[in-house]
Amino acid sequence: MLSTDTLFLLSLFPYLGFLWFLTYVKETPRLALIGFYCLLIFVAITVPSGIFAKMVYKEELANIDWLHGGAELFLTLSNTLVVFGFYEEIIKYRSKQK
Q1: How far apart are CA 28 and CA 26, in angstroms?
Q2: Which helix (H) or strand (E) holds 59?
């Protein structure tokens, strides 16, 4: 049986493949691509934050509001960049249609 940590690590490989593909597809909106890369920042911050929560507070990351909220800020930033990136492309596409 695979542990959740192992599954989490293994899930990074398909995501890295997804990023590689998006990077080389010329139609990918630049801002959205930056947002997808920012998700890696979220992961890079969440993992140490979870370890810190376990070691210092003896709790799961989700139970330490200030730490969890700080990590989730990067998820929000990532999602916002992706949405604005695709929104910008939609606006450009619609302006070309007129």
Answers
A1: 6
A2: none
Which positions ≥6 away from 79 have C-beta within 8 Å?
Answer: 35
Q: Could you tell me the two tokens for 76?
A: 């929000």
CB 61 within 8 A of CB 4: no
Contact 8, 61 (CB under 8 A): no
Q: HSE, CB side, 13 Å, CA atoms: give it for residue 96.
A: 6
For the chain, the structural domain boundaries read 30-97
pLDDT of residue 1: 73
Residue 35: how many other CB atoms lie within 10 Å: 20
Please answer whether residues 71 and 38 qualify as being in contact, where contact means their C-beta atoms are separated by less than 8 angstroms: no
Share of the chain above pLDDT 70, in %: 100
C-beta separation of 15 from 38 below 8 A: no
- pLDDT tens digit string along 67-93? 999 999 999 999 999 999 999 999 999
